[in-house]
User: What shape does this take?
Amino acid sequence: MVLISVVVPTLNEEKFIERTLEALQDQTLPKHEYEIIVSDSSSNDSTVEIAKGLADKVVICDRVSAGFGRNFGAKHAKGKLLVFIDADTIANPRYLEGAKEALSKWIAATGPVRALEKDDVLLRLFFRYWSFNTRLSLFLRYPIFPGFNFAVRKSVFEQAQGFITQDITTEDLELSLRLCKYGKLGYNKKMLVYTSTRRLREISVPSYVANGVKYILFKKCHSWSEHRQDFSQIYPKK
Assistant: This one.
């Protein structure tokens, strides 16, 4: 019986998706207890072809939005528990075991985050800070969960009507804050992921942090396109 549905939103992720899905296949949780759903936003590369060889389901939507892609995948989920991981994120082998444990106690949960690439010390330190900040936010009862490491009970997710679907960078933050009214959220150390630093290379660490603070204080934020335009000169892509 499927207990957990893992939703991976994608758009032209042929460089990352195979490794991500292989990590999800290689879990300590028995495979019959979970399914892997790739929710693709009409990729024009080989993402879908690769995913079909490794995922249990591949569903295609025609809208480019991380929030919409996650919601679309969740609509096809059999499990009572939902896990959202991005296409450039590698789950620790005990990740789903940790998610199962966490959601038996809390309505939603997250875990530690580390940088996938090791060539930028600043970004590696930033993700260490991110994990500390997440735990602190839970202590302060103002949870900040990343969309690439987000587990939630399906019943609560549906009650909350899922992620907002506009082209913004804080759809995950917005949902984690909104979930507080439905119950307690938690943190499980087994839910460790390694995520790519590529988005922070595109928009810069200062921009990313400032945007989160802006949302927390004023409920306003940039879109991804605005981020890239504003900071492309001070933190060029590698």
